[in-house]
Specification:
732 residues, alpha+beta, Beta-Lactamase, six-stranded antiparallel sheet, 29 strands, 23% strand, elongated, binds adenosine-5'-diphosphate
Amino acid sequence: MFQPDLTNCDREPIHIPGRVQSHGFIVVTGEDDQITHVSANITAFTGIDATSMPGKKSSILDEVLGKKPTGFLSQLVSLGQHPDGFRPNNPYRVTIAGNPWNLIINQSPEHYLFEFEPERTDLESELQHKVGRSLSEMLADKELSELLNNVAVQIKKIIHYDRVMIYKFHNDGHGEVVAETKNEELEPWLGLHYPASDIPQQARELYKLNLVRLIADVHTEPAALLTHEEQPLNLTNSGLRAVSPIHIQYLKNMGVASSFSVSILDRDKLWGLIACHNYTTRFINFNQRESAKLVGQVLSSAISFRQQEEDQNLLSKSRESISTLTRSLLHGSSIPDALFAAEGELLKVVGATGAAFVFEKKTYTTGQVPGEKFLNELCEWLSINVEDCYASSNFASEFSAAKEQQNTVSGLLTCRLSKELNEFIIWFRPERIAYVNWAGNPEKPTSTTESGLMTISPRESFKVWSQEVHQHSLPWEHGDHAAANQLREEINFAISRRATELRVLNEKLREAYNELDTFSYTISHDLKHPLTTIKSYAQLIVRATDQERMRNMAGRINDGAVKMQAMIEEVLQYSRVGQARVERKAINMQHLLDELRHDLLIAFNQPEIQIEIGNAPELEGDQLMIQQVFSNLIGNAVKYSSKAEQPKVKVEGQRIGQKVMYTISDNGIGIDQKDFGKIFDLFSRADAGKEFEGSGVGLSIVKRIIEKHQGKIWLESERHQGTRFFVEFPLN
Ligand code: ADP
C-alpha cells in the first residue's frame, strides 16, 4: 500500500484510494453491466451480502431499490448515453428500506459509478431559495475584498458551518485566508498563510475537476471497495471518494469534524476555495451541494471579471511605456538603441528596477543589475531552462547564485525572443522583506517513525507562527506577464521588419550593381567606338598637310564627340528616371499625343509618314515621364517604319476597368521574337534595326518609367510586317 512520506506527498494517488466515505455506498459496473466493485458498507444499508456482489449483474439490486426485475441500473445507463452524460439527470430518487436516497451516476474511464447518498440533510431549509436571494447581495460590492467577505457571510448564512473562509492560492501554491466569517468563540484565521504542502498539487488538480467536495465526518472509518479487479479504480469523479489519510489527520489536528469546499476558478486556474469547517459532523445532500457549486461559479466569474479588470489597469499603466518603446523601435537606428534610448521606459513596462537585453551575442543593461559574470551565467541558465516566458519572485530558490544578489535579483521575469536564438529580455526586482503569519510552523510538516523513517505528519499546532521572508520580490502579476509578452512581440515585429527592409535594400543594391556593371560595359565598349574615331582622325591630323583634308577630319572628330555627348546624355537620363519621384496627376493624352505627333512630323520631315491618333483616354502619372514614354515609343515606330513604302503609325487607347491600355503600332521592319527580351536592356538593340541610328537606351528608359507607375509593357511583332507595343497603366 502507498505510504506517504515527505518525498512522495505530492505523488500520493489520492484519486484511487480504494475506499469511500461511509455516509453512502457505491456500486460500480463495467461495460457489460457486471458489478466490478462495491463498497463493503452496502450490506449495512441494504442487507445484501457485499462479498457476493462482484461479478454479478447489476439487476441483483432491483429488489432493494423497489424496482421491477428488469435491470434498473443498466436502464439508467442507456438513458444517460447522451452528450452531457448523466449530469443533467442526477440525482435519481430511490427508496431503500423505506428511506429516500439520492442515486448519483458518474463515469470513470471504464466504469459506471452508482453512488448512493441519503437524501436527508443537516440543513433545515432548501438551499436553492436562499442562494437566489444571496447572490445579488454577494455581488453588490465592487471591491474584491468586500465581495469575498460578502460571499463568506452569505455562505455561512446558507449552510450554517461554524467557519467559512475564502482561501486564495498564491503563485507558489501556498494559501492565504483572505476573507472569513466564523462563530464568535472561534479564533480568527483571517490573514494566515498555509504552506503549499497542506493542499498538494494533485489535490489542487482534483479541485479543478470536482467543484464541490464534502467530507461529512472525519471520524468515521471509510468503507473499503470489494472487487476482483487488480487495477485500482479511478474515483476522480466520485463524490464519495475517501479522503487522503494525511488530510483527515490534518483536519483532526485542527479540531474540524466536517469540511465542505467549493472551488473558485479564474479562467482555467484554481484561484482558491470557499473552505467551510464545522466542528461537529455535518452532511449536505447532493442538491444542496449543487446549489453551493452555483455560488462558487458565480463568484468565479466575478473574480475572473475583476482580475481581468485589474490586469487591464496594470496593462494600461505599462501601455504608455510600451507605446514609447514601440515608436522608438519604429524609428531607432538599432533595436538596443531603441529600447534603451528613453530613460527608464523599459523598466516601467513591468515595474522593475533593472533590465537586461541579450541580443546578437551582446548584453545591454539599465537600472540596478547584477555584474557581468552573473549575467553570463544567468544567460546560460536561461538558454537551457526557459523556452518562452518565465517569472519567479523567489529566483534564488531556482538559481543559487541569485542568493548573493538579493538587492538586484530577488525577482526575475524574462521572455525569450525566439525559440531558435538565445536572446532574452530580462527584468529584475530587488528583495522586499515581508512578514508572513503562518498557521503553524510551515517548515516542519514531518515526524520520524520508530524505525527512524521520516514521514509526513500534519502539524499539530496551528498557532500563529510569524516569519520574516527574505529573498522574495514583489510578485509578478498576470498584467506584468501580458505587458512583457506584448513588448516581446513589438521587438520581434521590429526585428522582422528590419530584416525585410534589409532584404529590399539588398535587392536594390543588386539591381544597382547590375546596372553599374552595364554602365561600365557601355563606357568601355560603346563609347570606345566614337573615341576610336576621334583618336584615329586626330592622329591623321598630326601627320596631314592638306588644309581641306584636315578640315574634313576635324569635322569627323566633332561628329564623334557629339555622338559621345549624346550617349552620355542618354545614360544620364536613364539614371535620372531611377531616382526621380513620380508626381501623379491626370494627364490629358489627347493634347500630349497631338503635340508629339506635330513635333515628330517636323523632325522626320517625310511627307509620306502617317501618324494616326485614335481614342486617347486620360492617364494618371507623371506628366514628363509619360511624355518620355510616348515620345520614345512613337519615335521608334516612326523611325523603324520610315523606310517602308507608306509608313503608317497608329496610337490608340482604351480604358479596361481600372486600367488604361495604349497600343502603338507601325508597319516597319519588325523585331525578331528572339530579341523581344533584350531590347528593353540598356544599350541593347535588335539585329534588324542596326542600320538605323540609335543607342539602345530609349526602351530601357520606357520600361523603367512604366515600372515606376506600376504599369506593364509588352509587344507583338513580325519581321517585315510591323510592330505593336502595348502599355498599360493602373488608375487609382
Ligand atoms: P534605339 O535607340 O536603338 O532605338 P531603343 O531602346 O529605343 O533604342 O530600342 C531598342 C531596340 O529595339 C532598337 O534598337 C530596335 O532594334 C528595337 N525596336 C524598338 N522599337 C522598334 C520598332 N517600332 N520597330 C522595330 N524595332 C524596334
